[in-house]
Fold this sequence. Notes:
This is Alpha/beta hydrolase. By secondary structure, the chain is an alpha/beta fold.
Amino acid sequence: MTTWVPDVLGDGYQQLTIPLGSDPDGEGEVEATLIRYQPAQETKRTGRAVLYVHGFTDYFFQKHLAEHFADQGYAFFALDLRKCGRSLKPGQTAHFVSDLTLYDAELDEALRLVREQTGEGQVLLVAHSTGGLVLPLWLHRRQKKADGTAGLGVSGVILNSPWFDLQGPSYLRNVGTVAVDALGRVKRKSVVPKTTLDTYGVSLHVDGNGIWNYNLDWKPLGGFPVTFGWLRAVRRGHAQLHRGLDIGVPALILRSKASYFAPRYDPQVDTADAVLDVRQIARWAGCLGDRTTIVPIPGARHDVFLSSDEPRAQAFAEVDLWLDWLHGHNSAQAPR
């Protein structure tokens, strides 16, 4: 384990490398990166922390998210998963894993480190898009262990536009999934055709129509190519979710009010989910197995926390309201 060093996000941000050993998928040594935010001005301490997990073609750069949680008294941490963002090494296939369970190693260690850093307090998990599939599956596996999710010190989960199903025509979810399963076994790193599109990236980035600045090597405008092996792992995860999970803690799900898919940028992309079908998020939200609150945000983008001012403010207000409820709920459930 290396020591904390300054992070690319600047003042108040540090990073820690988590070595993970040899890659089961044959791409050398892999590592994850834990990022923490420590503001110069001391904030109120509550003994609570946040651990954030990004999605596909993504990494942690949302400083305003860290600052909001810090203002609420949370110690903030984020995790760049193996082969993603800060953790991507030369010669590795960005975001590639053949099985979503491989992420258990960095999730377990990141959570251990967060609790070690914050005095074994309660940890709120926050995840976006594909991270919103990875985290519930991980919690479901941990819930089946002797001490369950409670033994992890997890207080709740906030999922920001989680990827709960494959968007597009229905044949992609049946015949297409059968094909992906077969090709994903024998041609794992072959690229699925027509899976890069810069519509959403242009909406976000300052070089396009957006206001957000981030590293285009780690989050390219058109996205990283989707491989058959990775998509097979995701579809297997979807199937498990659809059979029903038990994550063991309450969840808040934020999503846009509407989806809008376009082959090229137009202004409607700024006010809708241009990546996922929000109807699928609504349909499968009940599969998490505990109390679930789902809130549609009118005018929100795929990442609701990267929306324009009004929907972004509403999303943060909904988070704060739900956190007030969560603290009361968990206090009421605590042994007396």
